[in-house]
Specification:
CATH architecture of the largest domain in chain A: 3-Layer(aba) Sandwich
Structural class of chain A: alpha/beta
CATH topology of the largest domain in chain A: Rossmann fold
Radius of gyration of chain B: 16 Å
Mean pLDDT of chain B: 93
Number of domains of chain A: 4
Largest sheet of chain A: 7 strands, mixed
CATH class of chain B: Alpha Beta
Number of helices of chain B: 8
Shape of chain B: globular
Largest sheet of chain B: 6 strands, mixed
Distance between the termini of chain B: 29 Å
Shape of chain A: globular
Structural class of chain B: alpha/beta
Oligomer: heterodimer
Strand order of the largest sheet of chain B: 2-3-1-4-5-6
CATH superfamily of chain B: Pyruvate-ferredoxin oxidoreductase, PFOR, domain III
Strand content of chain B: 15-25%
Mean pLDDT of chain A: 97
CATH architecture of chain B: 3-Layer(aba) Sandwich
Radius of gyration of chain A: 27 Å
Number of domains of chain B: 1
């Protein structure tokens, strides 16, 4: 049976068919739907959302050591978080078979940087497979487990936004039942202390040689000889763009194994062509490998290290004489950047923070959008958890008065991910920061995943809920206040009081995400034209439903969700339902 | 058969993903090779959202590039304008008459462009659909996406019955009736 599937769904299907028993991940666009799709295979696979990627990877590592085929999935920056166990699992090996699916985000559709995760494969000496479409996502996932067990190594599966989030046809097969491998205590293999690791490093280097030999003959590295004088070495989504642009007019070497790359195969392919192009998004990873062999090629000088590629740009670079530009110029159209949704609880928080003129150490989530106009409230965003720890550093060097105008904002899921350690740093090292935990009862930006604070597991079943207030108190924060960010007056008072204090404090800004099914506000807001004095206070909220129409304020009924926050900020009571 | 490219554009949250799923399942039913490219994550939060669907005997790239779209289904006027360079000269644009102010317009940094429909007509054959009004008539403003789909379906060369079947397979069971009604209304335009 053929089915139209996202690349991510196909990876999940591949894991199912490969007999995987354990999946642990933390959500991150564009990787999230892999783990979400695993949920449907509940009878055969245990799936979970872990608090962060490091925990997820370690859990998968444990499952693999214990003899099961295991999977962990993350976005490119999630791989940074799990790097520690990844590098050492390379030494330990995999026993049951371990795959790490990592999705890069060229073009940064939903990410804070554009890093190329292929460097991790090289740095950790772990093989990396790179599919181009959904059918390959499924097949490569299954092959990854075979390689993992045959070579006793974790295997990376590298995806990118357009592979993860494109649908194409997949042929479904039955699940292969793989019995648990024996678990035997093996200190020399599984305990990575110097005496053992010294020996294991030798094994890793030998394995690398064996994998390079495998890459020479593997069916994943395919030569397509179209009898052309032009050769193209490419992989992943770039292969599809190249095929679209160049068709059968060039020869291809499609590298399904991004690392390690073959040597002899590339040499032979290069020899068969008069001109060689290397086409790959982001860093010149293949190109540097080719050049290191002394083979001349055209790479980044004709393409770019930035953003996504396209068929048009590839065609222009390979056949410049044919490049016909469409003369049509795009009409001027104002940008439409992403915004906080109508009814978003974060809007109340940022409105108050902006009003008080505070420095805001921000974090990763929907609330990063607190940096956009008109709220323009967030000062910094680095990575998951950094809002808390970076504010600690800021406060220490700039002093007490600065700290009284400084807050951290971090979501509930992000706080569980890596905010808690920063808060311990503040408490332990005599800090006096104010941390606002934006508790909207869900992991928002990635599309509503449950987390240790939501009271449900990945299947939606009840799960033990972390008591956030008690947790903060347990690590030594004595000032913990719960406040509703839509009660603007009260919320402002709380923020004033807590930032003025000389002790560390936590404000839990509690109100559920407006997109949660159970969140329902009665009626829609509208402006009473007679009462409205046109002060435009409501426009400061940056609500997509409220706009200024020539000479009056208007609330778009199709956009408004009736949250009533605008009613709370209108000084003249001109907004009602 | 050469590849047909359909671009679906709108504002995050308007239901573009459902429309493209219906189109994708139809192409699959017809035995074509299909590629669909979606956008998830941050852009879905009220930003511009573009989805691509391509079908034919053999489709490589999931992306539609400038001047390549046979059809654009636009869920919002400004987004139709933004995507205009992507339609083939003489191609087709089906556009919802809805206007949603983007944040630069709300804050007064930019003005919502005037005369969008006329601009679209300079390059393409344009059908304007009051999709929100029609969707509200059938009782659910969220079915505006399916109204537009109905308008597209009419000249697609595929029977209404087949479209209805695919729609039934794709939308959640409890919303089938309202979606069928919305589809009919769009089809009748």
């Amino acid at each position: 049976m053929k089915k139209l599937m996202l690349g991510n769904e196909a990876v999940a299907r591949g894991a199912y068919e490969a007999g995987v028993r354990f999946v642990s991940s933390y959500p991150g666009t564009p990787s999230t739907e892999i783990t979400e799709s695993i949920v449907q295979y509940r009878d055969d696979i245990f799936a979970e959302w872990a608090p962060n990627e490091k925990v997820a990877c370690e859990a998968a590592a444990g499952a693999a050591i214990a003899g099961a085929r295991a999977l962990t999935c993350c976005k490119h920056v999630g791989l940074n978080v799990m790097a520690d166990p990844v590098f050492t699992m390379s030494y330990i090996g995999a026993n049951g078979g371990m795959v790490i699916a990592v999705a890069d985000d060229p073009g940064m559709h939903s990410s804070q940087n554009e890093q190329d995760s292929r460097h991790y494969a090289k740095a950790a000496k772990i093989p990396m497979l790179e599919p181009s479409d959904s059918a390959e996502c499924k097949e490569f996932t299954k092959l990854a487990y075979e390689i993992s067990e045959a070579f006793d190594t974790p295997v990376f599966l590298r995806l990118s936004t357009r592979v993860s989030h494109s649908q194409s046809l997949v042929e479904l097969k039955e699940r292969q039942e793989i019995p648990l491998k024996d678990y035997q205590k093996d200190i020399a293999k599984n305990v990575m202390m110097p005496g053992n690791a010294i020996k294991k490093h030798v094994v890793v280097e030998e394995r690398h040689q064996n994998l390079t030999a495998y890459a020479e003959t593997s069916p994943l590295n395919v030569i397509e000889d179209n009898g052309s004088a032009i050769g193209v070495i490419t992989s992943g989504i770039s292969y599809l763009y190249a095929k679209e642009a160049l068709g059968d007019r060039v020869n291809y070497l499609k590298l399904g194994i991004a690392y390690p790359m073959p040597v002899e195969k590339i040499k032979a392919f290069a020899k068969s062509c008069e001109k060689l192009f290397v086409i790959e998004e982001l860093d010149p990873f293949i190109e540097e490998h080719v050049r290191a062999m002394g083979i001349p090629c055209t790479g980044k000088e004709a393409f770019t290290m930035l953003y996504e590629y396209s068929a048009a740009m590839i065609k222009k670079a390979v056949f410049p004489e044919e490049g016909q530009e469409d003369a049509f110029t795009a009409p001027a159209a104002p940008m439409r950047p992403p915004v906080l949704c109508p009814g978003c609880p974060h809007r109340g928080t940022f409105y108050v923070l902006k009003k008080l003129g505070l420095t805001v150490s921000g974090d990763i989530g929907c609330y990063t959008l607190g940096a956009t106009v008109p709220l323009s409230s967030v000062d910094t965003t680095i990575c998951m958890g950094a809002s808390v720890s970076a504010a600690h550093g800021m406060a220490k060097v700039r002093g007490k008065e600065f700290n009284k105008k400084l807050v951290s904002v971090i979501g509930d899921s992000t706080f569980m991910h890596s905010g808690i350690t920063g808060l311990i740093d503040i408490v332990y090292n005599h800090g006096a920061n104010t941390v606002i935990i934006l508790d909207n009862s869900i992991t928002g930006m990635t599309g509503h995943q449950d987390n240790p604070l939501s009271g449900k597991d990945i299947y939606g079943d009840p799960a033990k809920q972390v008591d956030l207030e008690l947790l903060c108190r347990a690590i030594g924060v004595e000032r913990v206040v719960v406040a509703d960010p839509f009660d603007i007056k009260k919320f402002e008072e709380v923020v004033r009081e807590e930032t003025a204090s000389d002790e560390p404090s936590v404000i839990i800004a509690q109100r559920p995400c407006a997109l949660l099914k159970y969140v329902k506000y009665e009626g829609k807001c509208s402006v009473d034209a007679e009462k409205c004095r046109k002060c435009k206070m409501c426009l400061k909220l940056g609500c997509p439903a409220i706009s200024w129409k020539e000479d009056h304020i208007e609330i778009d009924e199709t956009q408004c969700n009736g949250c009533g926050l605008c009613m709370n900020v209108c000084p003249f009571g001109a907004i009602g339902k | 058969m050469s590849t047909t490219s359909i671009m679906i554009t709108g504002v995050g949250g308007q239901g573009t993903l459902l429309a493209v799923r219906v189109l994708g399942n139809m192409a699959l039913r017809k035995g074509y090779d299909v590629k669909v490219s979606e956008v998830h994550g941050m852009s879905q939060r009220g930003g511009s959202v573009v989805t691509y669907l391509r079908y034919g005997d053999r489709v490589y790239s999931p992306i539609i590039e400038k001047g390549e779209a046979d059809v654009i289904l636009a869920f919002e006027q400004l987004e139709a304008l933004r995507c205009l360079p992507f339609v083939k000269p003489g191609g087709r644009i089906i556009v919802n008459d809805q206007k949603i102010d983007p944040m630069p317009v709300i804050t007064g940094a930019a003005a919502y462009p005037e005369g969008i429909i006329d601009r679209l007509k300079e390059r393409a054959e344009v059908t304007v659909v009051p999709a929100i009004r029609i969707a509200e008539e059938v009782g659910n403003a969220r079915t505006a996406n399916v109204v537009l789909l109905g308008t597209y379906a009419k000249n697609s060369g595929i029977s209404k019955e087949e479209w209805t079947e695919v729609l039934k397979e794709t939308v959640p069971a409890k919303f089938i009736d309202v979606n069928i009604q919305a589809f009919e209304k769009g089809y009748q335009l």
